[in-house]
């Protein structure tokens, strides 16, 4: 585990490295969860099997033991600092995350120089509040985006768009119902 200083306290990066990897995938956790979420674990294993190194990043609020997430500007600043500090050498940088972590990765993709963004269960809007859309966070990404979304996710279903691919899996926001579908989508993304 690497401890990385950020403007908002230390973050932890858990390395899952592959010798000779030409790509590195950096993944963040959801608002109330950690890096042990089943979809993050499955994505990490799949990326490693495809020859891609992975860092699972714990935001400073989680490292400090808080359950409630920090405000978006703090999450983004910490994420940007972590991505800048990771020893990625000359590898192609892919970023992403689960739920809130996917939002952070989208908002910062340009700033960290990402070649692509992997969103696991992107929360398009709060449950039952479609008018509170977060679509501008997706529309601001200028690199390819893959969103893996449960068909019955109460946080909504993002629309397809140029440069944005949606893989719909059976199930909800947890993405636990179709691990094989999740792994196939991640494999295709990291090897493209």
TrEMBL record:
Domain KANL3/Tex30 alpha/beta hydrolase-like: 23-160
Domain of life: Bacteria
Record InterPro entries: AB_hydrolase_fold, KANL3/Tex30_Abhydrolase, NSL3/Tex30
Xref: Pfam families: Abhydrolase_11
Protein name: KANL3/Tex30 alpha/beta hydrolase-like domain-containing protein
Source organism of the structure: Solirubrobacter pauli
């Amino acid at each position: 585990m690497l401890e990385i200083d950020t403007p908002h306290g230390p973050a932890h990066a858990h390395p899952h490295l592959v010798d000779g990897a030409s790509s590195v995938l950096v993944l963040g956790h959801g608002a109330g969860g950690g890096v042990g979420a089943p979809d993050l674990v499955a994505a990490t294993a799949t990326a490693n099997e495809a020859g891609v190194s992975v860092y699972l990043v714990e935001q400073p609020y989680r490292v400090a033991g808080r359950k409630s997430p920090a405000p978006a500007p703090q999450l983004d600043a910490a994420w940007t600092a972590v991505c800048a500090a990771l020893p990625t050498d000359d590898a192609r940088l892919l970023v992403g995350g689960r739920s809130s972590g996917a939002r952070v990765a989208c908002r910062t993709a340009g700033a960290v120089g990402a070649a692509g963004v992997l969103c696991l269960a992107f929360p398009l809007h709060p449950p039952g509040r479609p008018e509170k859309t977060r679509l501008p966070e997706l529309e601001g990404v200028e690199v390819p985006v893959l969103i893996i979304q449960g068909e019955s996710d109460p946080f909504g279903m993002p629309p397809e768009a140029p440069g944005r691919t949606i893989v719909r899996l059976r199930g909800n926001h947890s993405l636990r119902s179709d691990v094989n579908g999740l792994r196939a989508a991640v494999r295709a993304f990291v090897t493209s």
